[in-house]
Amino acid sequence: PSKSNQSKFRQSSSVSSVSANVLTRRHFLPESVCNRVENSWALVQNDLEELGLEFFLRVFESSPELLALLPYGQSYLDTPPLERKEKLRQCPLLRVHSVHVMTAVGNCVAGLSDIESLIPSLRSLGSE
Questions:
Q1: Which helix or strand (DSSP H or E) is residue 115 part of?
Q2: Signed CA dihedral, 59, 46, 42, 126: sign only
Q3: Cα R_g (the chain), whole angstroms
Q4: Is the per-residue pLDDT at 20 higher than 80?
């Protein structure tokens, strides 16, 4: 093949590979699954603080060693489980963290319709 044909092939190949790498809602999840996720999230989104806090309390109840991942969590490790749960429930830093995480999850749910723009958000969240 001539150089001009090779160049055209490279261009069309790169366009195809870019197109193949772009994820869309249609290719990522079936519409019915996206709708179920969005409908479920609608039940949660009005109470992010309490539900997020409850989520973390359950995580820390089943895996207390994960508290060490939080800058303020280490101080709760030696507390007996029932007392720890109540102290964590009152912890303003955990409440803020809970809302932050639940908001990020909500952004992911909202981004199901635009996976391409969601990926940078997820990468940014993962680097925090």
A1: helix 115-127
A2: negative
A3: 22
A4: no
